[in-house]
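[audit] Reproducing an earlier prediction to check determinism. Same input, same settings, fresh worker. If the tokens differ from the archived copy the diff job will pick it up downstream; this log only records the rerun itself.
[audit] input (448 residues):
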Amino acid sequence: MKYSRVAVRLLLVTVGAAVFSLSPRPAMSQDWLSTGVGLGAQKIKLAVPDFPAKSVDQQLVSLTPEFNKVLWDDLSNSGIFDMVSKSYYPLKVPEEPLDVDFQAWSNSPVSAQMLVFGKVEDVNSQMVITGRVFDLGNQANPSVLAKRYVATLNEISTRESAHRFADEIIKQLGGGLSGINETRMAFVSNRSHSEEIYVMDYDGFNAHPITSYRSICTTPRWSPDNTKLAYTSYASGNPEIYLFSFETSRRVPFPSYRGLNTTPAWSPDGKKIAFCSSMSGDPQIYVSDVDGRNLQRLTYSPSVDISPVWNPKTGNEIAFVSDRSGQPQIYIMSADGSNLRRMTTVAVGGDASAPSWSPNGLFMAFHWRVSETGTYDIYAMEIATGKITQLTHDAGRNEHPTWSPDGRHLAFESTRSGTRQIWTMLANGLDPKQLTTIGENWNANWSN
């Protein structure tokens, strides 16, 4: 069976109609969801004064504000800090431990619990950043973190240093869970007038193309070790699974099958790939080794089965979308195709698709067009209980969620700005931010 480009688009976009037992307008952020995704604890009040540039070198002076902005944005985006406004800060900003006035920073109006401070120096024509974190409630032994970074005097290296320091702070103060500031996103963009795969930093900086086929490329998915991308390409005229290696900047061999081949998904150990293929007729879920060996068909139904995603915590289960019941819905099965069960039940109607499993294995994010509103929004379901919360409201069309590796954030595509763009938000639906602006951008996948 040959599938046209239009047919494949319909499969990727509309397959997955599903309906759930819940109220039509669930709350924006329930306590059970915030706690489950690591956002339930009380936020730490954090003061982060700008690091001063201790040099007259114009390159260092011009790059230091970039470091300060990226550090602030990274910590603010984390979802675990209450950032104290700089308008409340004392006039004297500390550079060294003995400079810290504990009373000035811990008392009103600052009322900070933790203080991040330091300086930026020019040493042998390199940027040297010294950063510290003090616990203002422990004056006898306040040092929580002390780090030094050496960066090349350019924008990319400066931003990388800020990301690394922010991740260290988040890990130290956020319960040992690493930050996401050095992660990346793969996505689809038409900014070059064809639909190609791009990669950018987690905050939207440094976007650049990975493919240049001047054809349709879609559904990018990171390997667990972030060294490869799997995606769908029409470069040969037929939708095929392609693999790209970041280590060699070349394609990695993967078999070509007749018919539709799309929506690849890596197993958590990186040894297998699940995907949708119509090689036997109807689109079904298959799994093989990364080199294409040991091909196994997992689903057998006269329907469309598509969009597999592994349980990243256990690797023992695969969620996917199927219309086998008449209405496409989200299903879960064991990794060998057994123990099939439906995750969604008929209640009020609507189209749901694009399941994305949270890193802790407890939640499933997806998009759902409720019949009552006719609008696509992002939802999260607690798998054990079936509880659901709506994460986006009254803001254009919102689709294809993808979890950050810390489980505290989601990226998704939205038309709320007038065109289809990549956005992020906290995993409880709060604090949305737009990442892309050039062309149209969609189908993001967060690195591991």
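[audit] rerun output stored. Observation attached for the diff report: The two ends are 35 Å apart (CA to CA).
[audit] end
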